[in-house]
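lol forgot to send this yesterday, sorry. struct tokens for the thing we talked abt
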């Protein structure tokens, strides 16, 4: 998993080096996640990288009934991860990323719950890794890594350390 997370660190480094305009003009989260996805795609040859992707093969990506996560659709069941690294046709789900602007004052619990569900091995769409990053103007304000349906504190600390090593991190969220 560290190999995949190191690729994300490289993508974040390129993102912050090349996308300063987006932060200077205070553009929205969807714009930021799209541009971040472009940089992530370069790091994962052989994988598809999509934004707001809600499918697993032909099926709609849905959380189990009774979930507390609100969603963008009228039924309130399907979910749209900000960025996914996967193979659409197989399906093979590697990485789900939720990205937030540091200025977002909504509680992060929605994103955390989504990542716990997306990485839960008991659900049919499990991603190997979930990542929550809070995008500050010049660096990552906080980050959390999810594996097996829960926060992985050791990987979160490791990832935050890697971000700090490349000048992008303050520490785990």
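and heres what i got for the seq, position by position
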């Amino acid at each position: 998993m560290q190999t995949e997370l190191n690729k994300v660190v490289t993508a974040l480094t390129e993102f912050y080096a090349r996308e300063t305009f987006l932060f200077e003009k205070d553009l929205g989260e969807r714009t930021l996640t799209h541009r971040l996805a472009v940089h992530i795609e370069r790091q994962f040859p052989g994988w598809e990288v999509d934004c707001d992707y809600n499918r697993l093969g032909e099926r709609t990506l849905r959380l189990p009934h009774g979930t507390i996560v609100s969603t963008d659709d009228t039924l309130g069941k399907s979910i749209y991860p900000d960025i996914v690294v996967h193979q659409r046709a197989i399906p093979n789900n590697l990485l789900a990323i939720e990205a937030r602007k540091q200025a977002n004052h909504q509680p992060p619990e929605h994103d955390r719950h989504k990542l716990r569900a997306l990485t839960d091995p008991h659900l049919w769409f499990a991603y190997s890794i979930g990542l929550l990053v809070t995008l500050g103007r010049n660096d990552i304000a906080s980050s959390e890594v999810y594996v097996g349906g829960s926060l992985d504190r050791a990987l979160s600390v490791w990832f935050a350390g890697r971000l700090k090593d490349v000048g992008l991190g303050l520490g785990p969220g």
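The mean pLDDT is 88. anyway ping me if u want another try
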